[in-house]
Amino acid sequence: MEILVPVWPAVASARAATQRLRDVRGARIALVDDNLDIPFTTHLASLLSERHGAKIERLVKPSGTAPSPRELIDGAATAHAAIVGIGL
């Protein structure tokens, strides 16, 4: 039996904490899309963008059931906020 752990090892150096967003208008939000429910994530992205003025960066995982590649997580970490782990 092979056990897969969907997390990356701890980073050697801790990152500084960021401030909580007060408003999403103008904020860059990373939407980590697991590629399992495209209509849902497309609708979520348009709501955040059109109704709330957020700038959405959609990061699509190559496989919805596998852990996110390190590059994808690093890309999400540079946004003002990230939406990950959407359970449907």
Would you spell out the secondary-structure blueprint of this structure?
Elements: E1 28-33, H1 38-51, E2 55-60, H2 70-77, E3 81-83
Parallel strand pairs: 1-2, 1-3
Please describe what this structure looks like.
The chain is of the alpha/beta class and 88 residues long. The protein has a domain at 28-83. It has two helices and three strands. Strands 2-1-3 form a three-stranded parallel sheet, sandwiched between helices. The longest helix is centred in the middle third of the chain and has 14 residues, at 38-51.
Please sum up the structure shown.
25% of the residues lie in helices and 17% in strands.
Task: Name its key features.
88 residues, alpha/beta, 3-stranded parallel β-sheet, 2 helices, 25% helix, 17% strand
